[in-house]
Structures are given as structure tokens and as C-alpha cells.
Amino acid sequence: MDILNQRHAFDLPSQAVSDALVDVFFKWIAPVLPVINRHDFMRRYRNPQNPPSILLLQAILMVASRFYHNPNSSENGAISPRHFYKKVKALYDAEYDRDPTTVLQAVVLLGIYWDGPDDLTESGIFYWSRLGIALAQEHGLHLSENYVSLSATQSRIWKRIWWTLYTRDRAVAAAFGRPLHINSEDCTVEPLIESDFIEYDEQTGTSTDRTTALFFLQSTEDSRMKGAAECELGLNEWLVSCPSELQWRQSRHNFWSALLYSNFYTIVCQLHLLQTPVSSKETQSSAFHAATSIVSIMETLQSKGELKYTPSFIICHAVVSFVTLRSQMEASTPSLLHAIRQNLAANLDMLEVLSHTWPIAGMLQEFFRTMTGPEHFERMLSTAAEKCGKRARGEENDSSSPLRSSARFKRPKLQQVVLPQTRVVLQILQRETRKQSNSQGPLHDKLNTGVESMPSGVLPDQNRSTPMTDVDPLLDDCDALAILQSLRSIIDAGNSITNESGSGEVS
To answer: What are the boundaries of the region Disordered (predicted)?
Structure first.
């Protein structure tokens, strides 16, 4: 207790600031992390005789403080995520609260603490995400038989905690190129349904907002799609079945539908990037529409004053949108090139706005600016205009077939073939910036080093001997089509082995 008191673990801001932070949490954060029963928490929060867990309260204040904006508050210096993070971690390390559900709720909230590259590894996103999953499995949240003896309220909270950990596991793996920690085949707990979000406040007569419940339900549907081959069909099915109140358009903007559709368009862009540079014109057109839609969504959020409240995964969406647009700057149509440049500039503007909430967005913005200078654009525009002139004079055919590399095919190693989507993104960035590295000077070297632990692709593998700033030698010997063809061959061979396992030994 002396140590916790020395670390000010029990100190809280003024009542007015605490009330504001709790309100921010349940308005902007709880729908993304629906692990707390709002009405039960607020009932205790308003009762000095039976207050909520100090561990959970400090965790709520920690995540809400990132979105707290009050220039008139005299306490602003002490209202920061890092300030509260130290208190929450001290309480957790001291095992001050022993209730398993409360501890899990706090760990889930600790899992979104992110101030910079260092917070991705040691005691950061990956640490708390893995710890939350391990604790949840230890207490059996992934097994349906453990829910039989629970009350309806406790059962709903457990399911929401488990599926929040599940979606976070998928989101973190996709954003940073890390392996999944939850095997779906080990889980028997039923999927979430709308009734799992039912909460009712008897004092005010209010119940849970249905839109936020549908938002999380649709997010879990999206995260359960399997495999790139099924992803296009899965996206189409999701789009057709998406509830009308969550279908986003600028004319009827809604914060939660905007986040949901931003995630949808990000997956569309990733499908395109997996096929680069041999994607068809149809795929390129679809990817361009998706990337510009992400920018449009961010601009709409900004115009409504809501971009500053978006979760950290919006940064990953901005990165994928930027890389998708940047990969299409070899376009041979000047008008399209102008549209790409305009959207790239808008993307950078949105990253600057996001940097006020998420500091790492500023580092990404500086890195991306080195790739979109006016000289580079003018050179590409001149080339595109020249090609356009040749086509107009009939000197060049407008072939719809993508160019294929003539590099000799070498069968890649399996562990190098199965690259996370975001590592492909990083490789594309590295390929583009490699040509400029000699002319950028120390600033480029510094930014290129810093981006290794950012969401564009991906933390260095601890077992990897080569630094991430080097382009994978495999990509010098093989074009992307060869890698994908090889992967398909490996999958087909694996299926053949499975089907013929009883008929003989396969070498």
C-alpha cells in the first residue's frame, strides 16, 4: 500500500473532470470495446458508499484521457494517457483487485494504450493483448459450458469480453503483421447476438443504443472471414446484408457506420495490394475507389469534429489508403494522376489531424511526405502525358493486360511466402523509397528507421537477422504473381495430400 500511495495509484482528478472522462469513455470508446456494463458501472460510480473498482476506474480514465479536450481545465497537465497508465499498471502489478472479470476488463483497456513505437512491444499493445487472451482462456471464457451457471448479466459481459479480445487479436495481427493467438477451433462460445448488449437503467428508464450494438456485431462478422480467396465473396455478402442504419453515405453520416465502412474499404485495398503489380484494371479501379472512400470518410469525420475521437485503427486505414493510392501513381492517364495526388494530399492532412490524438500519426505523415514531393509528381505527370499523346496518335496500344515480370521463377520458401498483408504493404513502400534513399539524407534515414514499428507494416521479427529496412531478397528474384502462384500450388498440394493420405505415402 505504501508503494501504491507513493505512485499516486488512488489519486483521481476533480469530480468534474472525472465525470467528463467517464462520459467520453461510454460515448466514444465503449462501443468499440463493449466490455463494461454501463448502467451497473454508473450505479456504483454515483454511490460513494459502494464505488467501482479503482483499477477499472483508472483504466477508464486512462483510455478516455486521450480524447479529452478542455483548454480551460487547470488539470490538463495531469490528464494524459501515460499519467493514468502508470497508476493502472501499478494496481495490476500489485494484484490490488482479485475479481477475474474486473481484471479482464482492465487488461482489455490497457491493450489499447499506444503513445509511440515503444508501446507496441514491452508492456504495450501486444503484451496486454496476449495477456488478456491468456487470462480469459484460463477462466474459460472461450468455452460455452462455463456459461451455464452464470447469471444473464454476467454471461453477457463474459461473451462481450471474449469477442472483444477475439476481434482485437485479429485487428492487431492484421495491422502489425503478427501471428494470431486465438484458434477459432478451440472456441465453443456462441457468437454474440443483439440481446447480449441489453442494458437497462431503472433510474433513467434508458436502454442500450441499438446502433452501437449493431456496429460491434457487424465488426465481429467482418473479422471472422477466412482467407483471401473467400474475402471478396465475404465482403459482398456482408455489404448486401449490412443493416440499413449502418450503411454509410456522406449525406447521412453516422460515426459508427463511418468506422465500419472505413474498415470495409481497407480490406478491399489490401486485396488489391496482395496482387500488385499484376492486378487487373478492374481490381485497380476498385482499389482506387476504396482508397478515396477512406479519405472521404476521414474528411467527413473531421468536418463533423469527430476524427479526434476515432480509435487507433483509423491510422491503419489511412496507411493502407495512402499505399494503395501511391502504388497507382504509375497511371498513364493525367487526370487520374491528378486525382491520386489530391487524395494523397488529403490523406496527409488527415494524418496531421490524427497526430494531435495519436502522436505516431505525425511520424507516419513525415515519412509519407518524402514520397510525394512535387518534383516526383511532375516527372510522373510528364511521363503520363507523353504516353497519353502516343495513344492519341496511335503509336501505343492501350492493353488491358497487366505487365508481367520476366524474372526467372524461383520457388520461395514456405515461411517467406505466407507474408502478412501489411508486410506486403511495407515491401511496396520500401521498393518505392529505395530509389530515393541516397538523396533524402539523414532525415530520411531517421524516419525510415522509425517506421519499422509503425502500423504500415510491421515490427521486426525478433528471430530475423536482416533489418526490416532492407527489401526482402526474395522479392528481387520473384515477382508477386510467382509468389501467389506458388502459394496456390502449395495449397493444392496440401489438399491432395489430405485427400490421398489413406492411399499411400507422399514424399
So the answer is: 388-407, 432-465
